[in-house]
Design a protein that fits this description.
single chain, alpha+beta, twelve-stranded antiparallel β-sheet, globular
Length: 333
Amino acid sequence: MSRVSRSLAVAVVLAGLTAAPGRAAEVDNLLPAQTESIVFVNVRQMLESDLIKKYALGQMKQALKGADAQKILEKLGLDPLKDIDRVTAGTWGKDKDDMNVVVVVRGKFDAAKLFEAAKEESKKENAKISIVEEGNYKLVKIVDENGDNKKPMYAAVANEKTLIGGTDKKLVVAAVEASIKGGKPELKKDLAALLMSMDEKASMFACGLVEGKVGELPDGLDKIPGVDPKELAKQLGNMKTVAVTFKLTSDVSLDVTMGMKDADSAGDFGKTLENLINTAKTFLPFVAGQKENLKPLVDEVGKTLKSKVKGSEVSVALKLSADAIGKATGSDE
């Protein structure tokens, strides 16, 4: 099998990899300059965390031992619990219906097996996978008409340690060529600055430039008592950046920071957010009353869920202990 053929036809697994949950808060140098938002998942760190080892790793291993899963993974030459280190995705676009994506999966992969699996799948009747060409490269095209993103995904193996996927053939080829040439990422100045603020020890983080892209209310928020939908939509429209950090160790912590247009808009949104949190807290005891094992978790949410305003930034923080999570899931019983 030629180098190009081996290196290029692996998207059979990419759909699963991109949805599934790498190493530091450094940006992957294969993301294109037009990137506006970045999502990073440190798969290796999460799998090695105390919380996952205690409450989830056993179930994961058991699920992968199933006959169908084992057969598929053997065909792909892939062990998700050992072979995937980190996943980085860069997105941009006018709105949710016109999103472009480049996904970089770092780990170790058997390129030959992945290619053969994709090739075999493409020959099946009504296959959602096909082999396509772009310049000197062969890519795997995946079509999921039932998915949220109606655009097809294209994928390639850049080398034995890197899988690349994207919503456009040219994007994937550009990323493959960038991996060969090396070099530094060329992100927008504001996004690069935002990325520098992210915690390099995070299990997962997401950050992005959202000015002019936020304004529609999430479902249900317009029905919360005390919330003025028009005012909240206006406040969301003043949001410029969003940064989310998720840490999974022996405990779980979540921090969300929203950069607003100015200090006044941050103050207004901060008050609304505080009202929303207080409203949520009034309902938490009713949730705990339904199931006794949820009480420790609900108590911790009530104590640790907080918001604050500092300058032009509004932040929300939450921390949950392994003990409370274990009781809530029944894993400690």
